[in-house]
């Protein structure tokens, strides 16, 4: 098993309702859409997206780190020590085939 899993994410800051799910075809390939209430100021939206991703995958927030895209809506996050089935759970969230 690999030690990390790279997750492409499209962040929608300032959303009326926070949610994780949906697909966006972005510069890093198919990306998971994460809508957050936080504004895109001083990294607040990025931090909110990092925590929302961890929560949606049922893992500790400390296991998720930003790899690229600090100033962009299109980001890459690294998940440390992914458990078996985590990639499948991510695919279901992104493609809307279940929780």
From TrEMBL:
<comment type="similarity">
    <text>Belongs to the UPF0235 family.</text>
</comment>
<protein>
    <recommendedName>
        <fullName>UPF0235 protein HZU44_20535</fullName>
    </recommendedName>
</protein>
<dbReference type="InterPro" id="IPR003746">
    <property type="entry name" value="DUF167"/>
</dbReference>
<dbReference type="InterPro" id="IPR036591">
    <property type="entry name" value="YggU-like_sf"/>
</dbReference>
<dbReference type="GO" id="GO:0005737">
    <property type="term" value="C:cytoplasm"/>
</dbReference>
<dbReference type="Pfam" id="PF02594">
    <property type="entry name" value="DUF167"/>
</dbReference>
